Recover the amino acids of this structure.
């Protein structure tokens, strides 16, 4: 189709504002999917997405629509995730579009992630069409939402379309607005083919399937193309688009979005943001995406060590489908060989682990999540540490700096005190507060990333009864009083339980870990001490009592000294066992402690 009749757009919104429902409705309205094949969350292909009701992956789909002017248009939609941990997916999708539908829930108004996604779209200079969704709800407040559009996002409220994706209200107006307001794609004017690879996945039969957006020239089967990042030349085997399932096409022209398969066998050969060009007459590269740096690290180990190679292959396939995820090999005394994996946040970590278990049937165990600390040594060198095992001895350290985040928390007025208390409990400070409207405020605060890893998001939701929302961006490093907390079992350090914590919280965490270990380590023939230590100082201790064997059972009379002699003999034996014996910590104990 000629470029003048093509429109490329994304749907951006805060999590749970109805973008998947709207994309379902658009697919249905344009006849891309017949009524009988229709189901909820058509573009959410993973079971995980359907279960949790969230979008994890960006999904491209091509629709055809005949507008009121009688002309037929090709609409390429990329549905994007809403959660802060998947903002890299959103930025990659936006780079393949000219416009974006911004969806705002009429009952909830502008939320934290709405603001973040609008900034991403504005950075790419996209045309934004605001859609006020869920206007059929009894407590919808369209006027307030329009006011917020102007006050918070500086978007004129008269450009907004009132709609309800569930009830099918305003869908035609949205389709007309896409055709009228979003500009058609323009060729870049390069000398030959230029296509942007913005996503990919692994297919058992076809190998690596790459999602592309053509900016210049055309792509068809049989062409020899060059991947500029890896410098590899490959032959295109098949080109096509999605509706939402892949279907084969003759070619992809300027402005069109689709997929290609080529003789790419290894996931490591493709790079997100790479430019695909003609091998005989290569063009210059398109602007790609910034390299994303993982913020949260965790070790992933196979429960059965024989699965190591299998896990390695599956992690590479998963990385192909989720380019924000990184991994490298490491080994641990307690857990054997595994991988150190980097994630964008805690939900990202949870989703990756769940996908490994479900999609690849892997039995895995993950270590406690940590962040990257910057350690300045006494000789002036700076070392980056993401694993407590590699933290140098205290006498070689001048200072430890931890990563900070700038968090934006939006909550109803009545919860501002609770929010401030939560932020100070997490060692954060509120920079300033802004009143958004009569009901809500936005707190801008600085927090250590380490503190918001585990339960911060959940605590915001529970404190504000579900009305609070949060978005964060990575800030700078700040000097902090961090210490390494070691767990000793029978006077031997167990590296899998070590962690770097703030000095003020070390004792509390040490007590919690020791108490949990006391529950899960089985009793031995002798007493076992579980200790939490900072350097040489013990801050917490629990003792697992010995299993008692009644050695005096065969003495049924006579002098007390006979019994005492047997008890003394047993005492000596236990002492000897304690000095030679090692405590085998079962695998379940690691899993239980890491859950806690």
């Amino acid at each position: 189709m000629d470029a003048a009749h093509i429109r490329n757009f994304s749907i951006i919104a805060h999590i749970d504002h109805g973008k998947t429902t709207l994309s379902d409705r658009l697919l249905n309205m344009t006849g891309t999917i017949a009524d009988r094949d229709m189901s909820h969350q058509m573009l959410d292909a993973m079971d995980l997405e359907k279960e949790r009701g969230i979008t994890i992956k960006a999904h491209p789909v091509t629709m055809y629509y005949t507008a009121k002017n009688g002309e037929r248009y090709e609409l390429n939609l990329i549905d994007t995730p809403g959660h802060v941990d998947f903002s890299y997916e959103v930025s990659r999708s936006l780079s393949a579009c000219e416009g974006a539908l911004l969806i705002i829930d009429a009952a909830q108004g502008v939320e934290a992630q709405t603001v973040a996604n609008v900034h991403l779209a504005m950075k790419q200079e996209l045309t934004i069409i605001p859609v006020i969704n869920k206007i059929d709800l009894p407590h919808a407040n369209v006027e307030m939402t329009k006011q917020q559009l102007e006050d918070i996002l500086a978007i004129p409220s008269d450009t907004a379309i009132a709609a309800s994706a569930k009830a099918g209200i305003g869908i035609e107006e949205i389709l007309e607005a896409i055709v009228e307001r979003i500009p058609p794609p323009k060729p870049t004017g390069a000398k030959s083919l230029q296509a942007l690879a913005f996503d990919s996945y692994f297919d058992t039969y076809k190998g690596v399937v790459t999602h592309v957006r053509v900016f210049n020239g055309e792509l068809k089967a049989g062409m020899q193309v060059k991947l500029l990042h890896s410098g590899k030349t490959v032959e295109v085997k098949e080109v096509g688009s999605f509706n939402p399932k892949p279907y084969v096409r003759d070619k992809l022209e300027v402005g069109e979005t689709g997929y290609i398969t080529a003789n790419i066998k290894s996931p490591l050969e493709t790079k997100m943001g790479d430019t695909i060009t003609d091998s005989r007459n290569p063009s210059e590269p398109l602007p790609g995406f910034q390299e994303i740096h993982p913020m949260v690290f965790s070790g992933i180990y196979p429960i059965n060590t024989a699965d190591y190679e299998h896990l390695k292959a599956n992690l590479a396939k998963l990385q192909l489908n989720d380019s924000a995820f990184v991994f490298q090999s490491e080994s641990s005394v307690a857990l054997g060989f595994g991988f150190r994996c980097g994630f964008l946040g805690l939900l990202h970590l949870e989703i990756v682990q769940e996908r490994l278990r479900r999609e690849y049937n892997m039995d895995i165990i993950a270590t406690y999540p940590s962040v990257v600390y910057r350690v300045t040594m006494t000789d002036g060198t700076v070392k980056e540490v993401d694993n407590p095992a590699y933290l140098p001895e205290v006498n070689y350290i001048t200072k430890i700096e931890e990563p900070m985040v700038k968090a934006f928390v939006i909550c109803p007025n009545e919860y501002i005190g609770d929010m401030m208390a939560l932020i100070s409990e997490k060692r954060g400070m509120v920079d300033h507060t802004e009143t958004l409207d009569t009901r809500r405020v936005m707190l801008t605060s600085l927090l250590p990333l380490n503190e918001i890893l585990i339960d911060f998001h959940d605590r915001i939701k529970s404190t504000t009864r579900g009305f609070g929302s949060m978005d964060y961006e990575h800030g700078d490093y700040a000097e902090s009083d961090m210490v390494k907390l070691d767990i000793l079992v029978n006077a031997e350090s167990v590296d899998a339980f070590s962690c770097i914590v703030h000095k003020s919280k070390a004792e509390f965490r040490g007590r919690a870990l020791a108490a949990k270990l006391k529950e899960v380590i089985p009793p031995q023939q002798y007493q076992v001490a579980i200790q939490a230590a900072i350097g040489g100082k013990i801050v917490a201790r629990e003792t697992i009592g010995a299993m008692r064997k009644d050695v005096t059972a065969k003495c049924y009379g006579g002098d007390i000294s006979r019994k005492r002699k047997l008890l003394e003999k047993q005492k000596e034996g236990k002492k000897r066992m304690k000095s030679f014996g090692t405590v085998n910590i079962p695998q379940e104990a690691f899993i239980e402690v890491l859950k806690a």
